[in-house]
């Protein structure tokens, strides 16, 4: 891209995106700007990626076409209160501040500024993220095209209606933690039946990776793939019976539902 992109906030997710767009050659380092109150962090990213340093948020906004708001939700109002009216309609604002709605963002901007709200998850840090986005009032198909191009550099990206963003938080936003717990439990279970810890962990991790890839690549319903490894009266069906008995399925339902409800609560809904 010949345009310039700027990151307000230089945390881990901002670095993941910088890595992604540079590796995908969407932007050259001289067209990527960063601004953060932590100057040591800014200097570190500059030295590592040769990206440009903006002295403050106001300077960054003047320099770029795309602005990525990569800060904690609690400081969004303060930041946009200072720079929001500087953002012009030809620019685009992409926010990854969790729980902050497009309407809340648009309150601080002129009416024609395109806004896109996104919810990435932590595997974006290794280029394997799952991101959902929703468009604000002034955002067009062009904004959708740009955001998909940028965020696909760190994984999957899908569009949803804004009223589903809390559900996204409950599923893919919080989901990595559910999977980490499953990996930990499988590893512990392997140790319990006699496997060395390293072997159990490697087998547990690869089993989840392989199973996930099979669902994705074969495009079959998980139940169909489950049946492929389930013989009558065999080991797998015996294990599945225990999972049903102890409520794995219902526990995951409840985890996603509770996390979704908490997301709404944190927004004051």
Description:
- With 269 residues, the protein is of the alpha/beta class.
- The protein folds into 2 domains: 5-160, NAD(P)-binding Rossmann-like Domain (Rossmann fold), CATH 3.40.50; 174-267, ProC C-terminal domain-like fold (Orthogonal Bundle), CATH 1.10.3730.10.
- It is built from 12 helices and 8 strands.
- Strands 3-2-1-4-5-6-7-8 form an 8-stranded mixed sheet, sandwiched between helices.
- Strand 4, helix 4 and strand 5 (92-95) form a beta-alpha-beta unit.
Kindly report how far apart the N and C termini lie: 39 Å
Largest sheet, if any?
A: 8 strands, mixed
- Percent range for helical residues? 40-55%
Total separate domains: 2
List the helices and strands in order: EHEHEHEHEHEEHEHHHHHH
Shape: elongated
Rg (CA only): 21 Å
Name given to the CATH architecture of the largest domain: 3-Layer(aba) Sandwich
Provide the residue-averaged pLDDT: 95
In terms of DSSP E residues, the strand content is: 5-15%
The number of helical runs is 12
Q: Write down the oligomeric state.
A: single chain
- Please state how the strands of the largest beta sheet are arranged side by side: 3-2-1-4-5-6-7-8
Query: In the CATH hierarchy, what is the superfamily of the largest domain?
Result: NAD(P)-binding Rossmann-like Domain
User: Would you tell me which CATH topology of the largest domain applies?
Assistant: Rossmann fold
Tally of DSSP β-strands? 8
Low-confidence stretches: none
Family: Belongs to the pyrroline-5-carboxylate reductase family.
GO cellular component, one term: cytoplasm
Organism: Halobacteroides halobius (strain ATCC 35273 / DSM 5150 / MD-1)
Pfam families: F420_oxidored, P5CR_dimer
């Amino acid at each position: 891209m010949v345009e310039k992109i700027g990151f307000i906030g230089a945390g881990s997710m901002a670095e993941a995106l910088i890595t992604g767009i540079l590796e995908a050659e969407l932007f050259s380092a001289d067209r990527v700007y960063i601004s953060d109150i932590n100057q040591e962090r800014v200097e570190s990213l500059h030295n590592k990626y040769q990206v440009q340093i903006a002295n403050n948020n106001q300077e960054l906004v003047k320099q770029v076409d795309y602005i990525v708001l990569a800060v904690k939700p609690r400081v969004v109002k303060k930041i946009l209160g200072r720079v929001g009216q500087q953002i012009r309609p030809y620019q685009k604002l992409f926010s990854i501040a969790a729980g902050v709605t497009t309407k809340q963002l648009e309150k601080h901007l002129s009416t024609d500024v395109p806004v896109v709200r996104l919810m990435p998850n932590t595997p974006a840090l290794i280029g394997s993220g799952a991101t959902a986005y929703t468009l604000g009032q002034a955002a067009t198909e062009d904004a959708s095209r740009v955001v998909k191009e940028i965020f696909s550099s760190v994984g999957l990206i899908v569009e949803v209606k804004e009223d589903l963003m809390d559900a996204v938080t409950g599923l893919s936003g919080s989901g990595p933690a559910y999977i980490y717990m499953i990996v930990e439990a499988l590893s512990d279970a392997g140790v319990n039946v006699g496997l060395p810890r390293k072997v159990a962990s490697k087998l547990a991790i690869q089993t989840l990776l392989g199973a996930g890839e099979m669902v994705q690549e074969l495009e079959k319903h998980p139940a169909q793939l489950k049946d492929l490894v389930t013989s009558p009266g065999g080991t797998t069906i015996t294990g599945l019976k225990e999972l049903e008995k102890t409520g794995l399925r219902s526990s995951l339902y409840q985890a996603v539902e509770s996390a979704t409800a908490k997301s709404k609560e944190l927004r004051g809904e």
